[in-house]
Specification:
Length: about 100
């Protein structure tokens, strides 16, 4: 039970922090609008099967649109550093290594 309370308080404070910084920048949108806006900025994963049975995976963030980029800028988030591209080679179904 204490864990749920801690997570709830933490989430509330994070939401308040985001709301405060956006309000300071003149952005008064509701949280649901921001969640919908930022929810379309995604990570894209491409998986390529190799002839020897291995699978090569490349994960990379999509480029944010102008509105998304503005929200990130106001919040001081460098989206390129927050989600760097990652290459992974799956040797078997149960083990993976990052290249």
């Amino acid at each position: 039970m204490d864990g749920h309370i801690f997570i709830s308080v933490l989430a509330y404070h994070q939401l308040s922090w985001v709301d405060h910084y956006l309000e300071q920048a003149g952005d008064r949108r509701e949280w649901s609008t921001l969640r919908r806006l930022l929810g379309t900025h995604s990570l894209v994963t491409t998986r390529l099967p190799l002839e020897d049975g291995r699978i090569f995976s490349l994960r990379q963030p999509s480029v944010p649109d102008a509105e998304q980029a503005q929200v990130y800028k106001v919040l001081g988030i460098d989206w390129k550093k927050a989600c760097p591209p990652r290459k992974t080679e799956l040797k078997t179904q149960n083990s993976a290594t990052t290249l």
